[in-house]
Amino acid sequence: MADAGPPSGDDDPDADGSPDAAAASDADAATESASAGAVIVPVEPSSTLRSTIAHVAEAAAADGAAAIHLVEIASWRNGDPESDERAAAAERVLERAAAWANADLDDSEAPGAADVEVVTAVLGADGYLFGADDYVRVLAEYAEANGADRVVLDPEYTPVGNTTLLQPLEFGLSNTSLSVETAPVDRPTRRERFRTEATTGRFVALFGLSLAFYLLLGDPTYWFDVVTGVATAAVVSITLSRVSLDSNPAFPRTPMRIVRGVIYVPVLLFEIVKANLVVARVILDPRLPIDPTLNRMRVIVGSGLPLMTLANSITLTPGTLTVRARDSDLYVHSLVPWAREGLFDGPLERWTRFVYYGRRAARLPSPRERDDVAILQGDDATEELPIAAADGGDPGSGVESESGDGASVEAESTADPTDADEVTDR
Amino acid sequence: MTAAPIETARVWLVVALTLLGLFFSFVSMVGVLRLPDVYSRAHTASQADTLGAGFGLAAVALTVGLAGAGFKSVLLLFFIFVTNPTAAHAIARAAFEEGIVPWIEGDDRR
């Protein structure tokens, strides 16, 4: 995707670059243009993506950066139901962004512009990513593999619709060897079409949902309730439509999901009652015949809402408790072997796939048949327990992002020597 | 006189549901006291909310009638079903991140 068009246009490359970029270009000028590393820009449709790319292209041309890597961090996992459509959508966004970057480099008259390569990539599609810590790990690995030393963030970058992610992402990246900066671009007062297209459906859906809920609690025939309901629903959907829903509702997929969700509710209730009776018997038994273990199960349900549905269903069922979700694995604590076997047989996983993808997807083999399960404790243990801080913790080990887990880094660095005592007296 | 048997049945159903709710809440309390560590206690804490509160709210819905307030108790139940596992997961995850090893059989800390 390298673009070597002749410099044209009359933009001053440093005119609105950041202070950092300007200083760097003063120092290196054109003499050492090839020495500057590559720049990584995480891409997601946002209102400031266009101006972020313009900024990056100008700064890269001025610094003589080797390449601009436009990367999209996957919100899906390859091989899951519907992952192909999501991957195709991501490719379209990346193509559009790459076209912009190439056009900007063509227009730049900085001497280095012709040498800047534009590369696109999709990262993290081989597992489920859960938060800023996972994004940092994926970005750091990619940077290492491609000799990049800088990350420029779009100020409105919100992968998986999580508006609070940018701050922790910036923080997490600042703990790595990468230098990170937020593109100094103005947030537009009006929403650009690119973004509007992407979010109208979500807005309408959330507006309808919150209005319906409000009127359900109030009186739909009383004008005052209707007016305040519309106002409330507007505030909710303006502020939260990108947070609550990570993709647009679609016909007939969304209504079908709701119908299948309604079918799932009694099934889940039956499972809950059944498991409740078993656990109640165990607890009231004077011998207390429990055999708790921690288990690992690699699940195939899809990232985001489906995974949350499965994890919550597992926790709602007494005897199994979702402790941690990491990569594609759920770490589930089971109270009795009966609950563990039921978990490994995967009825809840199958039902979750049924709710979100229909009957065909539900027919995958169970986790046990796929050999995607492991017991991490006790006599039947098949794998080691992944608790690093089990013997008091090593505050030094967590500083590198190697562990791939910013949250545990935080936990470990704040842990004090009393940790070990805490473990033993429980 | 025709409505009386239905009315009686409703009252008994309310009593039965309340007792079931109390039973599961009681089991959950016993579990929290008896079980050895934070993970296994989180199991029964969520049990109290699911069936304990579930049967309790069903009794409420039956008492006040399904129109109006009864419907709200169904919504409340839905709310509990979403928030309760989330809270249990948050507690378990926090324990896991702190490096607390789940208790297993034969472990002497109890």
How does this model look, in words?
The complex is a heterodimer of chains A (426) and B (110). Chain A has 426 residues and is of the alpha/beta class. Chain A has 15 helices and 9 strands. Chain A has helices at residues 19-28, 49-63, 83-107, 132-146, 166-174, 193-217, 223-244, 253-284, 305-316, 337-345, 347-357, 359-362, 367-370, 406-414, 419-424, and strands spanning 38-42, 67-73, 117-123, 148-153, 179-182, 293-298, 320-326, 329-334, 373-375. In chain A, the strands form 2 sheets. In chain A, strands 3-2-1-4-5 form a 5-stranded parallel β-sheet, sandwiched between helices. Chain A has a 4-stranded antiparallel β-sheet with strand order 7-8-6-9. In chain A, helix 3 (83-107) links the parallel strand 2 (67-73) and strand 3. In chain A, helix 4 (132-146) crosses helix 5 (166-174). The termini of chain A are far apart. In chain A, 41% of the residues are buried. With 110 residues, chain B is an all-alpha fold. Chain B has helices at 4-34, 38-64, 66-97. In chain B, helix 1 packs antiparallel against helix 2 (38-64). Classes of the chains: A alpha/beta (426), B mainly alpha (110). Chains A and B meet through helix 8, helix 9, strand 7, helix 14 and helix 15 of A and helix 1, helix 2 and helix 3 of B.
